[in-house]
What does this fold into?
Amino acid sequence: MRTLVVYDSMHGNTEKVAQAVGDVIGGDTTVVHVSKVTSDHVKAVNLLIVGSPTHGGRPTPPLQGFLKSLSAPAGGARAAVFDTRLGSAWVKIFGFASNRMARELRSKGWNIVEPVEGFRVKKSEGPLLDGELQRAASWARELSHENA
It folds into this structure.
């Protein structure tokens, strides 16, 4: 299974989750910052995983641009999405990046592996809450089993 993990990270938290996910999936997996992703990275992937911090209820502008530039997937490729987020109640008013990323990918014809996932940070700059990297690893194991 060829897997591509594309992420953006403002304070390093989303990058840590992306690396943890990529490490668990292993095999033919590439983890790449959105600023360095190319069309060659996306060609022939079986699973595309996209992660962004939640910023104003949305993914970061570079991640939004990447998603808008994507074409329909080749031959049954699937996608999974995650975000990093604050857990406070008022943040829920704006929503989370993962839901918007999933909606954009679906509109392009990608089949989304459910559920989308959110990993919590203590405050805007982080760090991740205790246990979140372990949750990311567990989520990645589920993804790799569903897409084997």
